[in-house]
């Protein structure tokens, strides 16, 4: 496998490379024929023996796991027990809450199953297929079709999919940081072991599969790491924290309520049970978990339609919290393709000869990257030339090299790479390069090496021969995307391996604010604090090494920034892995797709605003509806405590609170959770929700209890409880409706219509006789109902004032 190294000066790494052996150019060793790999018969026999890489790479939970996760929850168990009790002791209308839970669970299962199908379909589209050599011919197969003993070809950016032994190595370097945590690439030679989960950073070769399927422990680790898992999410962890506190409050309160209603009051048993259950059920914010799952699932489905693969669900939430996005220029701001604009010989070199050298360099690489492909397109390979040794491209070195036999007993060694690395400061060619970079052009320097490729510094004393001027193709959607980030107050930092001036010129053409503030990464400070300050002050960074990209992400995070990193090349992997959110292009290397949380399968940078918007919709809306649910929990707990302390009957039956919850929380929350929302995501979810829910719930409970106790004093007789309950229900509904009206702001036509529809539905219940009987709601007289309305108005005004004070005096 004689393959020449790549020449990209900082973009995505691709192409295989063979390291110079140190032998004299005129004494090249004879070519060794490559191994043919398994025959078709041997593959069939291995399949028959079960020696297949059958570890399932799953993109999501199975349908059975989804069902279990949605059905067998702590609160479903509580509600289920109470539901069964109510089916035996009370009319069916007091058991409606159980049917609501069944419907909610079904909706949750259905939506997550839809999201699973979307993810599974996208995973198949985005799956990289390794190249396996069989019957002497290379061909792509699915990862699950690899058998024991297969010979798998690899090159830069390729992921090692099974454990194996290296059989061929052409300057092969493998990054094992995903397994060992060690960032430095490891040189691999024939006979060395490679582990699944690592990836190739330079060179190429082939390895034989020695462990497949479940025998490859590292493959199992890779599978676990690449699943669409519900990893850390502030939203989910915040809801879990809230539910934990709710459980602590609910248990003692429920016990006190049971004792109060069954023992102390000496009520009719069935009525006492019904009112006890009516007090316990609304304490459970069961719909909050459902709506969070549904919001995430629908977000995945919406993004899936735009060919955006979300490999970890909270990535939707995470990108919405991002305040800094680090962009790799190549493949993100520019398209992959380039064009050779000009070849400028230096020092009197012959242009025709230079083109033959460039053509020979390009012909030696079977997997050229964008810049080398442009050279190949412009310079055909000369006949009779051959490559006798190569030096692979290194993102740290910024150039590659090759020794060429020109077919006439002439042997020369050439370097191709970054002019500002290979040229001495002050040279005329470097000044010409700077002028070209200022126009946004990319420049490579072809130079003749003074010595061999195996020295400590092959570029020392190299003779400049020609400048290769490349024109980059700007992405048509990049300018609009950068403008979107600016409007959303998300800082964009361009981090590239290219010349900083050239990158700044490209960014300037796209309208990036601060594009004129360029910085050469070779001058970056080492101290994290100073590095972070430099990053805050500048926008465009050039000549950045892979390790520097990683350090820059870490420095920004240390300064309190939430960082997203985009990239498509193997030199972006370390930074992608460390960033809060890694975003890879679908056409990027397999390694970048493996570590990224989000993969843009359509390679469109313009999809990122959709991901940000989806995340903001999820976070902002769940924060809204969480307040609704927790106001109900707070007033339910406090009402139960007040009833226990006053030794009175609990005012509500389950049917009353089912009606209230449906009209003021359940139905509105579903619409609000799925509505558009462009508010920037804010941290401290629990504090933001509870600072509204606690005062709102307390005021609602006190207002309702005041109405209830007033009605108990107003109404007399043995059958007065239904009238007292109806008055209390009216107050609680009106206060809850006002909470909904506040949560629904800012108003649009459909939000106003939603609140009005819920109010109208309650009026229908009060006006239609059979609904009055069904829900046991009948307002008696006019004094007490109007008193209930008056108390509700005072409570609503108080909530309005208190919430505004909270905004001013308790900012999060």
From TrEMBL:
This is HAD-IC family P-type ATPase. The lineage of its organism: Bacteria, Bacillati, Actinomycetota, Actinomycetes, Kitasatosporales.
